Amino acid sequence: MDYEVTIIGAGIAGSVLASYLSKQGVEICLIDRLNPFKIEEDSEYSGRTAALNLASINLLAQLELWNDLKEDATDFNRIYVWDSEGSSKLEFLAKDIDKIKLGSVITNNRILKELSKTLESSANVNLKFNSEIDAINTKNDSVEVITGQGEKINSKLLVGADGGRSIVRKLVNISTRTWSYGQTAFVTTLKSKKRHKNTAWQIFTSSGPIALLPFNNGKGANISLVWSAENDYAEVLKSLEDNSFVSELEKKTESILGSFELQDDLRFFPLNQLHVKNYFSKRTLLVGDAAHTIHPLAGQGLNLGFADIISLQQVLVSARRRGEDIGTNKVLSKYENSRKLPNLTMIGMMELFKQGFNNSNPWIRLGRNLAFQTTQESSWIKRKFIKEAAGLT
Questions:
Q1: Cβ-based neighbour number of residue 267 at 10 Å
Q2: What is the pTM of this model?
Q3: In a 10 Å sphere around its CB, with 0-12 CB exposed, 13-18 middle and 19+ buried, how is residue 192 labelled?
Q4: pLDDT tens, residue by residue, 364-379
Q5: Best label site of 30, 46, 261, 301, fewest CB within 10 Å?
Protein backbone atom coordinates (compact mmCIF):
# COMPACT_ATOMS: atom_id res chain seq x y z
CA MET A 1 0.00 0.00 0.00
CA ASP A 2 1.46 3.37 -1.03
CA TYR A 3 -0.48 5.49 1.49
CA GLU A 4 -3.21 5.17 4.05
CA VAL A 5 -5.19 8.16 2.71
CA THR A 6 -5.05 10.00 -0.61
CA ILE A 7 -6.61 13.48 -0.70
CA ILE A 8 -7.51 15.16 -3.98
CA GLY A 9 -7.57 18.94 -3.66
CA ALA A 10 -5.03 20.98 -1.68
CA GLY A 11 -7.27 23.94 -1.01
CA ILE A 12 -8.08 24.87 2.57
CA ALA A 13 -10.35 21.88 3.27
CA GLY A 14 -8.00 19.27 1.81
CA SER A 15 -4.91 20.82 3.38
CA VAL A 16 -6.49 21.12 6.83
CA LEU A 17 -7.56 17.47 6.66
CA ALA A 18 -4.06 16.42 5.56
CA SER A 19 -2.50 18.40 8.40
CA TYR A 20 -4.93 16.96 10.95
CA LEU A 21 -4.43 13.33 9.91
CA SER A 22 -0.67 13.60 9.45
CA LYS A 23 -0.36 14.67 13.09
CA GLN A 24 -2.05 11.37 13.98
CA GLY A 25 0.65 9.45 12.11
CA VAL A 26 -1.42 8.82 8.98
CA GLU A 27 0.58 8.57 5.74
CA ILE A 28 -0.98 11.03 3.29
CA CYS A 29 -0.70 11.75 -0.43
CA LEU A 30 -2.07 15.22 -1.24
CA ILE A 31 -2.73 15.83 -4.93
CA ASP A 32 -3.86 18.96 -6.79
CA ARG A 33 -4.13 19.82 -10.48
CA LEU A 34 -2.55 23.22 -9.66
CA ASN A 35 -0.23 24.42 -6.93
CA PRO A 36 -2.41 26.31 -4.43
CA PHE A 37 0.63 26.85 -2.19
CA LYS A 38 2.21 29.13 -4.78
CA ILE A 39 0.95 32.41 -3.36
CA GLU A 40 2.62 35.67 -4.30
CA GLU A 41 3.60 37.83 -1.33
CA ASP A 42 1.43 40.74 -2.45
CA SER A 43 -1.67 38.53 -2.75
CA GLU A 44 -1.37 36.83 0.66
CA TYR A 45 -3.56 39.50 2.24
CA SER A 46 -6.01 39.94 -0.64
CA GLY A 47 -8.55 37.83 -2.51
CA ARG A 48 -11.43 35.84 -1.01
CA THR A 49 -11.95 36.14 2.72
CA ALA A 50 -13.47 33.71 5.22
CA ALA A 51 -15.53 34.56 8.29
CA LEU A 52 -14.32 31.83 10.62
CA ASN A 53 -16.60 30.87 13.50
CA LEU A 54 -15.29 29.84 16.92
CA ALA A 55 -15.32 26.12 16.08
CA SER A 56 -13.19 26.73 12.97
CA ILE A 57 -10.76 28.91 14.93
CA ASN A 58 -10.47 26.16 17.53
CA LEU A 59 -9.64 23.66 14.77
CA LEU A 60 -6.83 25.87 13.47
CA ALA A 61 -5.60 26.32 17.04
CA GLN A 62 -5.44 22.53 17.49
CA LEU A 63 -3.27 22.39 14.37
CA GLU A 64 -0.99 25.00 15.96
CA LEU A 65 -1.72 27.45 13.15
CA TRP A 66 -3.88 30.08 14.82
CA ASN A 67 -1.10 31.80 16.78
CA ASP A 68 0.55 32.76 13.49
CA LEU A 69 -2.75 33.64 11.81
CA LYS A 70 -4.55 35.66 14.47
CA GLU A 71 -2.39 38.77 14.00
CA ASP A 72 -3.69 39.00 10.44
CA ALA A 73 -7.32 38.28 11.35
CA THR A 74 -9.98 40.81 12.32
CA ASP A 75 -12.26 39.75 15.15
CA PHE A 76 -15.96 40.53 15.28
CA ASN A 77 -17.97 40.49 18.49
CA ARG A 78 -21.24 41.75 17.09
CA ILE A 79 -23.53 40.86 14.17
CA TYR A 80 -26.03 43.51 13.11
CA VAL A 81 -28.80 42.49 10.69
CA TRP A 82 -31.60 44.61 9.26
CA ASP A 83 -34.23 44.52 6.53
CA SER A 84 -34.23 47.43 4.10
CA GLU A 85 -38.01 47.10 3.72
CA GLY A 86 -38.75 46.49 7.38
CA SER A 87 -38.68 48.29 10.68
CA SER A 88 -36.96 45.70 12.86
CA LYS A 89 -33.33 44.78 13.36
CA LEU A 90 -31.36 41.96 14.93
CA GLU A 91 -28.26 42.36 17.04
CA PHE A 92 -26.16 39.38 18.14
CA LEU A 93 -23.42 39.97 20.70
CA ALA A 94 -20.56 37.75 21.81
CA LYS A 95 -21.29 38.58 25.44
CA ASP A 96 -24.74 37.00 25.03
CA ILE A 97 -23.00 33.60 24.96
CA ASP A 98 -20.26 34.60 27.40
CA LYS A 99 -17.58 34.94 24.72
CA ILE A 100 -15.29 37.82 23.80
CA LYS A 101 -15.81 37.35 20.06
CA LEU A 102 -18.06 35.51 17.60
CA GLY A 103 -15.43 34.88 14.94
CA SER A 104 -12.64 36.33 12.83
CA VAL A 105 -12.24 37.42 9.20
CA ILE A 106 -9.08 36.46 7.32
CA THR A 107 -8.06 35.83 3.72
CA ASN A 108 -8.11 32.32 2.29
CA ASN A 109 -4.62 32.93 0.92
CA ARG A 110 -3.27 33.70 4.38
CA ILE A 111 -4.66 30.43 5.74
CA LEU A 112 -3.23 28.48 2.80
CA LYS A 113 0.17 30.10 3.21
CA GLU A 114 0.38 28.93 6.82
CA LEU A 115 -0.87 25.45 5.91
CA SER A 116 1.79 25.19 3.20
CA LYS A 117 4.56 25.65 5.79
CA THR A 118 3.17 22.82 7.92
CA LEU A 119 2.57 20.38 5.08
CA GLU A 120 5.81 21.01 3.19
CA SER A 121 7.75 20.15 6.34
CA SER A 122 5.67 17.10 7.29
CA ALA A 123 7.32 13.70 6.95
CA ASN A 124 3.89 12.04 6.66
CA VAL A 125 2.65 14.06 3.66
CA ASN A 126 3.69 13.64 0.03
CA LEU A 127 2.65 16.61 -2.12
CA LYS A 128 1.89 16.05 -5.80
CA PHE A 129 1.01 19.32 -7.50
CA ASN A 130 0.20 20.12 -11.14
CA SER A 131 -1.19 16.61 -11.39
CA GLU A 132 -4.54 15.81 -13.03
CA ILE A 133 -6.63 12.76 -12.06
CA ASP A 134 -7.61 10.56 -15.03
CA ALA A 135 -9.21 7.55 -13.33
CA ILE A 136 -10.19 5.99 -10.01
CA ASN A 137 -10.31 2.21 -9.62
CA THR A 138 -11.60 0.43 -6.53
CA LYS A 139 -10.18 -2.90 -5.41
CA ASN A 140 -11.20 -5.18 -2.53
CA ASP A 141 -8.95 -3.57 0.05
CA SER A 142 -7.74 -0.35 -1.63
CA VAL A 143 -8.53 2.42 -4.08
CA GLU A 144 -6.24 3.35 -6.97
CA VAL A 145 -5.80 6.81 -8.46
CA ILE A 146 -4.28 7.14 -11.93
CA THR A 147 -2.80 10.54 -12.76
CA GLY A 148 -2.45 12.21 -16.15
CA GLN A 149 1.24 11.28 -16.06
CA GLY A 150 0.29 7.60 -15.75
CA GLU A 151 1.31 7.29 -12.09
CA LYS A 152 -0.73 4.84 -10.00
CA ILE A 153 -1.32 5.69 -6.34
CA ASN A 154 -2.94 3.21 -3.96
CA SER A 155 -4.45 3.87 -0.54
CA LYS A 156 -7.05 2.56 1.89
CA LEU A 157 -9.19 5.67 1.47
CA LEU A 158 -9.62 8.41 -1.12
CA VAL A 159 -10.97 11.83 -0.10
CA GLY A 160 -12.35 14.31 -2.62
CA ALA A 161 -11.74 17.86 -1.37
CA ASP A 162 -11.60 19.32 -4.85
CA GLY A 163 -14.40 21.88 -4.74
CA GLY A 164 -17.83 22.39 -6.24
CA ARG A 165 -16.78 21.02 -9.64
CA SER A 166 -15.21 17.94 -8.07
CA ILE A 167 -13.62 15.53 -10.54
CA VAL A 168 -13.57 12.89 -7.80
CA ARG A 169 -17.34 13.15 -7.43
CA LYS A 170 -17.72 12.73 -11.18
CA LEU A 171 -15.34 9.76 -11.51
CA VAL A 172 -17.01 7.75 -8.73
CA ASN A 173 -20.51 8.67 -9.95
CA ILE A 174 -21.84 10.32 -6.80
CA SER A 175 -24.96 12.19 -7.87
CA THR A 176 -26.05 15.62 -6.60
CA ARG A 177 -29.07 17.81 -6.11
CA THR A 178 -28.24 21.27 -7.39
CA TRP A 179 -29.87 24.46 -8.59
CA SER A 180 -28.99 28.08 -9.26
CA TYR A 181 -29.81 30.69 -6.65
CA GLY A 182 -30.40 33.11 -9.51
CA GLN A 183 -27.87 35.49 -7.98
CA THR A 184 -24.32 36.69 -8.59
CA ALA A 185 -21.87 37.36 -5.75
CA PHE A 186 -19.69 40.49 -5.91
CA VAL A 187 -16.65 40.43 -3.62
CA THR A 188 -13.94 42.97 -2.93
CA THR A 189 -12.34 44.95 -0.09
CA LEU A 190 -13.29 48.48 0.86
CA LYS A 191 -12.22 51.41 2.99
CA SER A 192 -15.16 52.90 4.86
CA LYS A 193 -15.44 56.41 6.25
CA LYS A 194 -16.92 55.14 9.51
CA ARG A 195 -15.34 52.49 11.71
CA HIS A 196 -16.69 48.97 11.55
CA LYS A 197 -16.70 48.64 15.38
CA ASN A 198 -15.78 44.94 15.07
CA THR A 199 -19.25 44.34 13.71
CA ALA A 200 -20.38 42.09 10.86
CA TRP A 201 -23.10 44.09 9.09
CA GLN A 202 -25.80 42.34 7.04
CA ILE A 203 -28.64 44.04 5.17
CA PHE A 204 -31.40 42.23 3.31
CA THR A 205 -32.64 44.10 0.24
CA SER A 206 -35.22 43.19 -2.38
CA SER A 207 -32.39 42.63 -4.89
CA GLY A 208 -30.25 40.47 -2.59
CA PRO A 209 -28.35 40.49 0.74
CA ILE A 210 -25.20 42.53 1.39
CA ALA A 211 -22.56 41.62 3.98
CA LEU A 212 -19.95 44.11 5.22
CA LEU A 213 -17.38 42.20 7.25
CA PRO A 214 -14.68 43.84 9.40
CA PHE A 215 -11.34 43.24 7.73
CA ASN A 216 -8.23 45.26 8.53
CA ASN A 217 -5.67 44.01 6.04
CA GLY A 218 -3.00 46.61 6.78
CA LYS A 219 -3.17 48.06 3.27
CA GLY A 220 -6.01 50.52 3.73
CA ALA A 221 -8.96 48.14 3.62
CA ASN A 222 -11.15 47.70 6.65
CA ILE A 223 -14.20 46.00 5.11
CA SER A 224 -14.69 42.80 3.12
CA LEU A 225 -17.74 42.98 0.86
CA VAL A 226 -19.97 40.09 -0.17
CA TRP A 227 -22.91 41.39 -2.20
CA SER A 228 -25.32 38.75 -3.54
CA ALA A 229 -27.39 40.38 -6.28
CA GLU A 230 -30.30 39.03 -8.31
CA ASN A 231 -28.99 38.21 -11.78
CA ASP A 232 -30.89 40.95 -13.66
CA TYR A 233 -29.67 43.55 -11.21
CA ALA A 234 -26.19 41.98 -11.24
CA GLU A 235 -25.92 42.71 -14.97
CA VAL A 236 -26.58 46.36 -14.20
CA LEU A 237 -23.89 46.34 -11.49
CA LYS A 238 -21.38 44.74 -13.85
CA SER A 239 -21.86 47.60 -16.32
CA LEU A 240 -21.12 50.32 -13.77
CA GLU A 241 -17.85 52.20 -13.41
CA ASP A 242 -16.16 51.77 -10.03
CA ASN A 243 -17.43 55.11 -8.68
CA SER A 244 -21.00 54.33 -9.72
CA PHE A 245 -20.77 50.85 -8.20
CA VAL A 246 -19.61 52.32 -4.90
CA SER A 247 -22.38 54.92 -4.96
CA GLU A 248 -24.96 52.20 -5.50
CA LEU A 249 -23.50 50.22 -2.60
CA GLU A 250 -23.65 53.26 -0.31
CA LYS A 251 -27.30 53.74 -1.21
CA LYS A 252 -28.19 50.08 -0.70
CA THR A 253 -26.43 49.92 2.69
CA GLU A 254 -28.14 53.16 3.76
CA SER A 255 -24.67 54.67 4.36
CA ILE A 256 -24.43 52.79 7.64
CA LEU A 257 -20.63 52.93 7.34
CA GLY A 258 -20.54 56.21 5.41
CA SER A 259 -18.77 56.44 2.09
CA PHE A 260 -16.63 53.68 0.59
CA GLU A 261 -13.46 53.44 -1.48
CA LEU A 262 -12.55 50.31 -3.45
CA GLN A 263 -9.26 48.81 -2.27
CA ASP A 264 -9.09 45.74 -4.53
CA ASP A 265 -10.35 44.45 -7.85
CA LEU A 266 -14.06 43.68 -7.99
CA ARG A 267 -14.70 39.97 -8.61
CA PHE A 268 -17.99 38.23 -9.25
CA PHE A 269 -19.25 34.67 -9.69
CA PRO A 270 -22.62 32.87 -9.99
CA LEU A 271 -24.21 31.37 -6.88
CA ASN A 272 -25.41 27.78 -6.93
CA GLN A 273 -26.62 25.34 -4.31
CA LEU A 274 -25.30 21.77 -4.34
CA HIS A 275 -25.62 18.78 -2.06
CA VAL A 276 -24.57 15.20 -2.77
CA LYS A 277 -27.09 12.39 -2.36
CA ASN A 278 -24.38 10.25 -0.76
CA TYR A 279 -21.16 11.31 0.96
CA PHE A 280 -19.18 8.23 -0.03
CA SER A 281 -18.92 5.41 -2.55
CA LYS A 282 -16.45 2.51 -2.81
CA ARG A 283 -13.67 3.73 -0.49
CA THR A 284 -14.10 7.31 -1.66
CA LEU A 285 -15.72 10.14 0.29
CA LEU A 286 -16.30 13.86 -0.17
CA VAL A 287 -15.75 16.85 2.13
CA GLY A 288 -16.31 20.59 1.93
CA ASP A 289 -17.51 22.15 -1.33
CA ALA A 290 -17.15 18.81 -3.13
CA ALA A 291 -20.06 17.61 -0.97
CA HIS A 292 -22.07 20.81 -0.53
CA THR A 293 -22.14 24.47 -1.53
CA ILE A 294 -24.49 27.02 0.01
CA HIS A 295 -25.45 30.67 -0.28
CA PRO A 296 -22.77 32.96 1.22
CA LEU A 297 -25.26 35.18 3.08
CA ALA A 298 -24.41 33.65 6.47
CA GLY A 299 -20.72 33.09 5.70
CA GLN A 300 -20.93 29.42 6.64
CA GLY A 301 -19.41 27.70 3.58
CA LEU A 302 -15.87 27.14 4.89
CA ASN A 303 -17.15 26.60 8.43
CA LEU A 304 -19.30 23.69 7.20
CA GLY A 305 -16.24 22.25 5.46
CA PHE A 306 -14.27 22.48 8.69
CA ALA A 307 -17.13 20.77 10.53
CA ASP A 308 -16.91 17.94 7.97
CA ILE A 309 -13.20 17.58 8.72
CA ILE A 310 -13.69 17.56 12.48
CA SER A 311 -16.25 14.75 12.18
CA LEU A 312 -14.22 12.81 9.62
CA GLN A 313 -10.98 12.82 11.58
CA GLN A 314 -12.84 11.68 14.70
CA VAL A 315 -14.34 8.76 12.77
CA LEU A 316 -11.05 7.77 11.12
CA VAL A 317 -8.87 8.09 14.20
CA SER A 318 -11.36 6.05 16.24
CA ALA A 319 -11.48 3.33 13.55
CA ARG A 320 -7.67 3.16 13.34
CA ARG A 321 -7.40 2.73 17.10
CA ARG A 322 -9.74 -0.26 16.87
CA GLY A 323 -7.71 -1.72 14.01
CA GLU A 324 -10.53 -1.33 11.48
CA ASP A 325 -10.15 -0.81 7.74
CA ILE A 326 -10.87 2.93 7.37
CA GLY A 327 -12.17 2.54 3.82
CA THR A 328 -15.12 0.27 4.59
CA ASN A 329 -18.75 1.31 4.27
CA LYS A 330 -19.19 0.66 7.99
CA VAL A 331 -16.65 3.36 8.86
CA LEU A 332 -17.57 5.85 6.14
CA SER A 333 -21.30 5.68 6.91
CA LYS A 334 -20.53 7.04 10.38
CA TYR A 335 -19.05 10.14 8.77
CA GLU A 336 -22.02 10.53 6.43
CA ASN A 337 -24.51 10.15 9.28
CA SER A 338 -22.70 12.80 11.33
CA ARG A 339 -22.72 15.43 8.57
CA LYS A 340 -25.65 14.89 6.23
CA LEU A 341 -28.42 16.28 8.46
CA PRO A 342 -26.49 19.32 9.77
CA ASN A 343 -25.46 20.31 6.23
CA LEU A 344 -28.95 19.81 4.81
CA THR A 345 -30.37 21.84 7.69
CA MET A 346 -28.03 24.75 6.94
CA ILE A 347 -28.82 24.54 3.22
CA GLY A 348 -32.53 24.61 4.02
CA MET A 349 -32.11 27.64 6.29
CA MET A 350 -30.22 29.56 3.60
CA GLU A 351 -32.92 28.77 1.04
CA LEU A 352 -35.62 29.89 3.48
CA PHE A 353 -33.82 33.18 4.11
CA LYS A 354 -33.30 33.81 0.40
CA GLN A 355 -36.89 33.07 -0.56
CA GLY A 356 -38.29 34.99 2.37
CA PHE A 357 -36.34 38.16 1.69
CA ASN A 358 -36.86 38.08 -2.07
CA ASN A 359 -40.62 38.28 -1.62
CA SER A 360 -42.31 41.69 -1.76
CA ASN A 361 -45.68 40.43 -0.52
CA PRO A 362 -46.75 42.83 2.30
CA TRP A 363 -47.87 39.93 4.50
CA ILE A 364 -44.48 38.27 4.17
CA ARG A 365 -42.79 41.59 4.94
CA LEU A 366 -44.93 41.83 8.06
CA GLY A 367 -43.94 38.27 8.96
CA ARG A 368 -40.26 39.17 8.57
CA ASN A 369 -40.65 42.12 10.90
CA LEU A 370 -42.41 39.97 13.48
CA ALA A 371 -39.72 37.29 13.22
CA PHE A 372 -36.97 39.88 13.68
CA GLN A 373 -38.77 41.45 16.63
CA THR A 374 -39.47 38.11 18.31
CA THR A 375 -35.87 36.97 17.95
CA GLN A 376 -34.48 40.29 19.16
CA GLU A 377 -36.68 40.22 22.26
CA SER A 378 -36.11 36.55 23.15
CA SER A 379 -32.77 35.93 24.86
CA TRP A 380 -33.21 32.14 24.51
CA ILE A 381 -33.78 32.30 20.73
CA LYS A 382 -30.92 34.75 20.30
CA ARG A 383 -28.50 32.54 22.23
CA LYS A 384 -29.50 29.58 20.06
CA PHE A 385 -28.91 31.52 16.84
CA ILE A 386 -25.59 32.86 18.08
CA LYS A 387 -24.31 29.46 19.18
CA GLU A 388 -25.34 27.94 15.83
CA ALA A 389 -23.45 30.63 13.92
CA ALA A 390 -20.41 30.25 16.19
CA GLY A 391 -20.38 26.47 15.69
CA LEU A 392 -20.93 25.81 19.38
CA THR A 393 -24.03 23.58 19.15
A1: 11
A2: 0.90
A3: buried
A4: 444 444 444 444 544 5
A5: 261
